[in-house]
Amino acid sequence: MATRPTMKDVAAEAGVGVMTVSRVVNGDPGVAPATAARVEEAVRKLGYHRDDVARQLRRTNQLSQTIGLMVDHVADPFMAAIASAAEDVARQHGSVVLIGSSRDDLRREREVVAAFTARRVDGMVLTPVVGSHRFLRSTIEQGTKVVCVDRAAPGLDVDTVVVDNFDAVRDAVQRLIANGHRRIGYLGDRQEIWTVGERHRGYLAALEAAGIDADPALVRHGLRSGPEAATAVTELLAAPEPPTALLAGNVVVAIGALAVLPPDIAFIGFDDFALAARMTPPVTVIAQDPVAIGTTAAHLLFARIHGDTSPPRTVVMPTTLIPRGSGEIPGPYAQGS
Amino acid sequence: MATRPTMKDVAAEAGVGVMTVSRVVNGDPGVAPATAARVEEAVRKLGYHRDDVARQLRRTNQLSQTIGLMVDHVADPFMAAIASAAEDVARQHGSVVLIGSSRDDLRREREVVAAFTARRVDGMVLTPVVGSHRFLRSTIEQGTKVVCVDRAAPGLDVDTVVVDNFDAVRDAVQRLIANGHRRIGYLGDRQEIWTVGERHRGYLAALEAAGIDADPALVRHGLRSGPEAATAVTELLAAPEPPTALLAGNVVVAIGALAVLPPDIAFIGFDDFALAARMTPPVTVIAQDPVAIGTTAAHLLFARIHGDTSPPRTVVMPTTLIPRGSGEIPGPYAQGS
DNA sequence: TGCCCTCTTGGTAACGTTACCGAACGCGCC
DNA sequence: GGCGCGTTCGGTAACGTTACCAAGAGGGCA
To answer: Per residue in B139-189, pLDDT tens?
Structure first.
């Protein structure tokens, strides 16, 4: 196994100095075309690739052209779409993306962030988990840019891209109420997650505005997977006074719930998903645009990396309620029924 | 904005030499507890993080604890599952993952691979695109390990993890034929992609074995998105002699096709997807296990990184045909109908 | 007391690159 | 011819870390 060639090897091969090789490799001006050709020939012959590790070390206050992206779980389609969008933007800026999953574990998030900063990322996009993010303080102070996406990090004064979770869920629940439902179930992930908390608040606000007492028996928090959500639905519906409508707080929960949901129960899910329109009945959803969210977050990050020092801002992206049928199933109090 | 502290700063703060700081930071033995405590205090006070860029430079023949993962498109749920599995394995080995998408573009693949090697990754997992991969030769010779996943790279002698694409599709098409279909449509991505070619060959083999002439009018290649697949289905079904059954070569095509597919056309898709069982009719699929595939590929890669020098091998993971209904719709030649 | 051995500690030289400076060369002009 | 200038090139010193070696302190033993 050949050892990796260095500029010195290339220089020797081409009969020039290392500085000339450096200039050619980086496309710097001031090299005679004939010399450059000789160097490029040597580069090809030896299979030389510039070593960015050494390069970054020397160019201390330059950029590493690397950003980090930490999401809850890469396999989650919503997060995957954000990741893909972020990667596209990074590419436009000549950067690559380090990826990591927190799996909703603060210790793991810490480790991922540490691994990122140790690799001198220019900045990172995070979907923060529950807990204190004070450990990010020193990282930020040392110049690493941070943008939060999907979830806000309370106590951390950074750019944030979120959607109008509270309004969206409140409006959706109001819609269910208007369609004649009073016993509306709520299925959500861990309530401590910012997004989840906002959505739950929206649910409660809609009930309160309609003068409906919130029944804790209709609420299930902490659902982390499809099967957990399915079990929760089965249990809710087996209760003495089952709900006539359900709201699912995210797409994982929604898909899990739909696997066992009878077609006569009204249903609205947060996040759109493929084939929602082909279900029986077609599924009404609160749609957000993960590509737009990821793109916006990445643009904010690169603006910071490139010197934007304006005060941190929070961008609220819109959601759209897409009525397809499942959310329009009338409830027992529907007018005219 | 404070500049990033170095070991020298910590050493000055703690009143020790840099070597002592290095030892403490790396948990090396041979430092008196009292001294170590003083250093750790200084580390905390200054918010010091080890600079792995400099570390890697010095430890030239050591590992960078970074691997690359290049897939066609991160947002593709199949690829996202592989990415997630690979990240989990990487984490077990204390490594982080650089991610990149080729988007089926050889030039882009080259750039991503170059960006990976420039960052001295220990190895990479690739889903190679169409084209020659000779440019990987020098990278491999210089010690970067490569594992191909999902698709083989013809002409590249590396570990590869694939599924039995040919057999799986041939068996699925045989099943459609046994159910009375003779005009069976095929919807696929670019035929030049290894996986796609294998699946198409399986389709042709099943037809030939049954003595059915392959009708090119029933075959659509090069479908890169859901909408393209939907259009293709609409066109195929509008033809004078439309197919009575369809086989979709991957999940993106399948989901696109299902958006417009009438319920009386038999259908089998490659790759399982959420809620396939809840469609009307429930969708028969050839399922592969992306988590197992990604995990296997990552394990192979780390085995190589840790010194495995046995000859490259190809691991063929199993697929499972899951009959749910859509693939069992009888055709015009069904017995007893 | 002198010697050796262990424990702890620090100095120095790399790793591969680039920033900074200076040198060599050719050319035009006084 | 001498001088200045632009072009092309190379030497040297960093970047922050670790490998290697060496040195001082302290203790045990002859």
So the answer is: 898 889 999 999 998 888 999 999 999 999 999 999 999 999 999 999 999
Contact B40, B78 (CB under 8 A): no
Query: Helix (H, G, I), strand (E, B), or coil: what is residue B195?
Result: helix
Token pair 């083989």: residue: B152
Least CB-CB distance to B118: which of A49, A99, A101? A49
> What distance, in Å, lies between the first and last C-alpha atoms of chain A?
79
Query: What's the pLDDT tens digit per position in A252-287?
Result: 999 999 999 999 999 999 999 988 999 989 999 999
pLDDT tops 60 at residue B306: yes
Per-residue flag: B16 CB under 7 A of strand C: yes
Does B326 contact chain A (CB < 8 Å)?
Answer: no
Q: Do A74 and B53 touch (CB under 8 A)?
A: no
Residues in A closer than 8 angstroms to B279, CB to CB, are 275, 278-279
Q: Who among residues 247-286 of B has its Cβ near strand C, under 7 Å?
A: none
**Per-residue exposure over B290-317, b if at least 16 CB sit within 10 Å of its own CB, e if not:** bebbbbbbbbbbbebbeeeeeeeeebeb
Tokens of B69: 């993962």
Answer whether residue B82 shows pLDDT above 60.
Answer: yes
Contacting residues for A176 by C-beta, under 8 A, at least 6 apart: A184, A245, A247, A266, A268, A327, A331
3-class DSSP assignment, residue B248: strand
Partner-chain contact A53 B119, CB within 8 Å: yes
DSSP string, A82-106: HHHHHHHHHHHTT-EEEEEE-TT-H
